[in-house]
Design brief:
Elements lengths: L1 H42 L38
């Protein structure tokens, strides 16, 4: 009987403390997620030296292909009249 009473008190105490500290924990978690999202957004911002209408092409280094003479990539297009 004493053991059940202790378990009940621990349960009630945990429930009370959880209700007391849950808003702080949720706020802290949302703040950290918000900071990470802002950092990712700032890393994706275009560079400031790019003028409006200017196109920038970042080319990846081409791997050395042995035995193939590469003329270039095929680009599919439609003719506009």
């Amino acid at each position: 009987m004493k053991t059940l009473f202790i378990i009940f008190l621990v349960y009630i105490g945990f429930k009370y403390l959880f209700r007391l500290f849950a808003p702080f924990l949720v706020k802290k978690a949302t703040d950290t997620i918000k900071k990470k999202a802002q950092q990712q957004y700032q890393n994706q911002q275009p560079k400031s030296h790019v003028k409006e209408g200017e196109t920038i092409i970042d080319k990846a280094p081409v791997k050395n292909q042995q035995g193939k003479d590469s003329v270039g990539e095929y680009v599919d297009f439609e003719e506009i009249e």
